[in-house]
Design the sequence.
DNA sequence: GTAGCTGCAAAGAATTTGCAGTTCT
DNA sequence: AGAACTGCAAATTCTTTGCAGCTAC
C-alpha cells in the first residue's frame, strides 16, 4: 500500500482523483487524454482486485475507447498518482487494487477457498516505519499479505494426493 | 515465508533437505529422480533470490541434466517441501528464495537502487498470527516486504522527468 | 510391468514495442 | 508546429503442455 498520510484523500469523490492524476501528468509533461480519463474512471469504479486482461475486457464492454496497449501504458501513471496499487496475491498475472477513496488495508487470504479478508492493524504500520528507520530507510510503501486456512475450510479434508 | 516452528531445520546440512523432499514425493507417490535431486542441490546452493530462467541457465552451465520443463515441474514440489519460497520483490517474473537452512526473514528494499536488507522482527510474527486468529484463520504463510529509499539514495536528486 | 518421468518443441498468455496516423498544448 | 498519444499487429518473454521414449519402484 502506498503510504499517504499528508493528503486527506479517503472518501472523497472523483474530483480529487482527477486532480492527482493531472498533477502527475503535468509533472512529467504528459497529457490529459480522453483515454486516460476513461481508464481512470473505470479503474476507480471497480470493486476489489483486478487483473489487466479483465480490465481491458470491462472497458471494451462499456464501449470505452482504450486499447490494451494504452491500458498497459496508463497503469504506471495511475500507480504513481496513488490511485491504484499492485497487490501480491499468489496469482500468476499482475494484480491491482484501487486505493483511492479506500482506507489502507492489507489482506488475509485462505489458500484453500481464496476467501479474502481485509484487515488494518495500526501496530503494523508503526512497526514497519520503525524497522525501515532502523536501517536508514524512509518507508514509502509496503506489501503485506497473510496466508492461512479459514475457519470454513478447516473442517474439510484436504484432498491432497 | 513458510512458517515452520516445529522442525529444527535451520543450519542443518543437506541430508535433512533430502529427507524432506523425499517425504513430499513419497506422500504424493512421486519419484526421486536424478533430475529432481540435481535441481534441489543447485537451488539450495544459490545465494539469495533467483528467477527460473536464471536457474535454468545455471543448471545448464554446471552441466546438470534438467530441462526447463523439468525445472518448472519441480518448483511446486520444492515449495511444498519447504525448501524454497516465492518472494514478492516488485520484479516481473516469479522469484524464489531458498529457505532451507536459512533463518526466516522478510525484506526491506530500496526502490531507487534495489538494495535489499533482510530483517527479522519477532513482533511481526506474533501479531500476524494474532490477526489471522482474530478472523478465524490458521496462519500458514505470509509475504511481507517494505519498500523505501535507503540512506544512500536519499541525497541523490531524483532524476524523475 | 507399469505408473511416473524427461526432453523437446509447440502452444499459451501476458506484456511490450515499432510505427503511422491523430491530437493535445 | 511539435511533442506526446493511440491502436494495431508483431515481437518478446515466461510458463505450460502433448507426446514418444526412458526409468524408478
Sequence:
Amino acid at each position: 500500500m502506498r503510504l499517504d498520510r499528508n493528503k486527506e484523500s479517503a472518501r472523497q469523490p472523483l474530483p480529487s482523483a482527477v486532480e492527482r492524476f493531472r498533477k502527475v501528468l503535468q509533472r512529467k509533461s504528459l497529457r490529459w487524454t480522453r483515454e486516460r480519463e476513461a481508464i481512470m474512471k473505470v479503474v476507480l469504479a471497480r470493486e476489489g482486485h483486478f487483473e489487466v486482461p479483465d480490465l481491458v475486457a470491462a472497458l471494451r464492454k462499456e464501449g470505452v475507447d482504450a486499447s490494451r496497449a494504452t491500458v498497459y501504458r496508463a497503469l504506471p501513471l495511475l500507480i504513481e498518482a496513488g490511485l491504484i496499487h499492485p497487490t501480491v496475491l499468489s496469482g500468476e498475472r499482475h494484480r491491482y487494487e484501487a486505493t483511492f477513496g479506500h482506507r489502507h488495508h492489507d489482506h488475509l487470504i485462505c489458500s484453500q477457498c481464496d476467501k479474502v479478508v481485509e484487515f488494518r492493524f495500526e501496530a503494523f504500520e508503526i512497526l514497519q516505519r520503525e524497522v525501515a528507520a532502523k536501517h536508514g530507510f524512509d518507508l514509502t510503501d509496503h506489501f503485506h499479505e497473510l496466508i492461512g486456512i479459514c475457519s470454513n475450510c478447516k473442517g474439510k479434508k484436504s484432498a491432497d494426493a
User: Anything to note?
Assistant: The longest strand of chain B covers residues 138-149. Strands of chain B lie at 49-51, 84-87, 95-98, 106-110, 116-119, 138-149. The interface with chain A takes residues 27-29, 86, 88, 90, 108, 110-111, 117, 119, 121, 123-124, 127-128, 131-132, 135-151, 154, 160-161 of chain B (CB under 8 Å).
